[in-house]
Amino acid sequence: MRVPFGKVKTFAAAAVLAAAALAVPAAAAPAGAATGTPPQVYGAWQCSNDACTWATVRDMADFDHANHWLVDRGDGRPSVNLVVLSFVNPLTLLNGTTNSGNSAGVPVGMNQAVVDYFTSHGVRVMLSIGGITYTDDWNTALAQNPTLLGQKAAALASRLGVGIEIDYEQSASPDTAGLQAFIDAYRAAHPYDASGADPTARLTIDVAAGDRWLIALDQYATANWLTPANPVLDYANAMVPSKQPSAGSAESNWQEHITGKSNYSPAIPPLAPAKFTGGLYIAEGSQVRPECTDFSSSLQNATGTWTQNAAPAGAGTTTGLLGYMFWAAERPSTRGVTTTPPNSCEGGVGAGATAFGVPIPMAPLRQS
C-alpha cells in the first residue's frame, strides 16, 4: 500500500529474480558540491526478496547476486555506507514470538550472516522496527509494555551488533509517552554516542517527507529528541512521499523540517539540517528509476547542491542535510520493479557515492 508522506510497505510473496549486471556510467559531480557539506549518511532500506517480511533464511549466494551492488559500485567500493533491514514487528518482538517466519520475535532472515555480509564491507547495519503495516502493533506494544520493548530492542541490537530505527507511522494521537519509555529503556542499555563508534548506540526515527503528516510525532521528536544541545536520537529520516517527487517538491518538503511550522499548535520547531536525511525512491512503479541506474538524470544529482548547502533556520550551526536514504533495495513490493540484476543500482546510487565522496565506512556525524 502507499501512504501520503510515508514509505511504501506492501508485503507478500517474492517473484523470480532476473540476471546480468549493470555497468557503472561515469558520474558527474553535482554543481556546487565543492562549497557544500557532502552527505555523511548515504543508505538504503533493505527489504529482502519477500516484500520486507524477511520470513525465510536467505541463501547467501543468492543474496549476494541480488544485492551485490550495495557492497560494490563497480570498483570494489560499496554504493552505500548504511543499510536498514526492514521490518521487525514491534509486537512480535515484545512477545518473543517464534513461528514460521520469526525466531524469538525477530524475522528469521535478519540473521548474523546478513549483518556480517554488509559489515565486512564497511557498511553499517540497522534494523527498522515498524513500518506502516505494523502501526497497530506499535500501538499495542507501547500500550502493553514500552519499557520491555525497549529492552528487547536493545538486546537485539547487542546480539547482532546493529543500530535500531523507529518507524512508527501513527498519524493521529501517537503514543509519545510510550515511545519515550521505549527510548529511555534503549538508552539505558546503549547511551547516546556522539563518536558513532558503537553501532548499537545508533538510534534513529522516521518522520514524514515534510511537516504535514505524522505531525504530532514530528513535533515531539523535533522538540525532545533531535535538538543539537541535548540529542537523544542520532537523527531522523524524512521518508519518501506517496510517489517520487520532483526536485523542487523534495526540497520544499525537506525545507519544512528545517524551518518548522510556527503556525501549528503546538508549533513544530526548526530541525537542524545535520539532524535528518532526505528520502528518495530507487524502486517504484513499473519503470527502472534513474535514481537507481543513471546518476546524471537522478534526483540525488538534481538536489545535490541544495542538500549540501541547506542553511539552518533556527536550529543547528552547519549547512547541509545529513545525507540521503533510498527506498528500497531488493523487493519492497510484490508489484513493480526490484533493484536486482539487471536493475541493480551501481549506476545511480553507486555513482552518486563517487560523485559525493561518501565516506565508507561512515565517519562520525556532525552534531549541530
Automatic annotation (TrEMBL):
Signal peptide segment: 1-28
Keywords for this protein: Signal
InterPro entries xrefs: GH
Keyword Signal among UniProt keywords: yes
Name of protein: Chitinase
Organism from which the protein derives: Actinacidiphila bryophytorum
Taxonomic path: Bacteria, Bacillati, Actinomycetota, Actinomycetes, Kitasatosporales
